[in-house]
Amino acid sequence: MGDDLGERLEAGLGELLQRRTRLGLYTDLVAGIGRGLDVSSYPLLSGLARMGPTTAGRLGREIGLDRSGVSRYASRLEEGGLLRRSPDPDDARGTLLVLTEDGEKIVSLLRQRLALALTRRLTDWPTAEARAFVTGLERFVRELRDDV
After folding, report:
1. Predicted confidence (pLDDT) per residue in 58-117, tens digit
2. Domain total of the chain
3. Distance between CA atoms of 31 and 77, rounded to whole angstroms?
4. Residues 10, 50: Cα–Cα separation, whole Å
5. What is the distance between the alpha carbons of residues 59 and 54, in angstroms, rounded to a whole number?
């Protein structure tokens, strides 16, 4: 394996994780939805969909926001009817963030939009190369998660 693979991967992931790259993806995803959903609140809605009902603190740690940021965006999404706050059965003083039925429908729409956008990005790739990329990325992410 080439010695520069780690450096190339570092550079590629660095670009992918930059805010401007994410915003480029998120802008089209959230277009026309409203309801408190924008490029800033999208990670919260997406993270909540992946985690299920959770506290603002746990969600913030997962998506890289502080608790006050999570609470602020959650309030906007709650006003838009996409999530609700519910008592935490494990902590009488705590509150869980929970997707509403509308929130789940919007997340499904967002995932469809994102899958379509990513598929369009791979359209010009040779099929075998696209499949190898996706399979390799799935493995890479799985192994990263297993190490955490």
Report:
1. 899 988 888 888 999 999 999 999 999 998 888 888 889 999 999 999 999 999 999 999
2. 1
3. 15
4. 25
5. 6
Axis crossing angle, helix 56-63 with helix 67-79, rounded to the nearest 10: 110
Can you tell me the distance from the alpha carbon of 70 to that of 61, in angstroms, rounded to the nearest whole number?
A: 10
pLDDT computed for residue 19 by the predictor: 79
CATH number where 51 lies: 1.10.10.10
What does pTM read for this prediction? Answer: 0.81
**Is pLDDT at 1 greater than 60 in this prediction?**
no
Tokens at residue 33, please?
A: 């939805």
Q: Which residue has the tokens 């590629």?
A: 12
Give me the domain span that covers residue 61. 5-147
């919260």: which residue's tokens? 44
Q: Name the phi and psi angles at 81, rounded to 5.
A: 80, 20
What are the CA-CA distances from residue 105 to residues 4, 46, 83, 110, 122 (Å)? Answer: 43, 12, 11, 9, 26
What span, in angstroms and rounded, lies between the C-alpha atoms of 39 and 31? 9
**DSSP 8-class letter at 61:** H
61: Cβ contacts below 8 Å, ≥ 6 apart: none
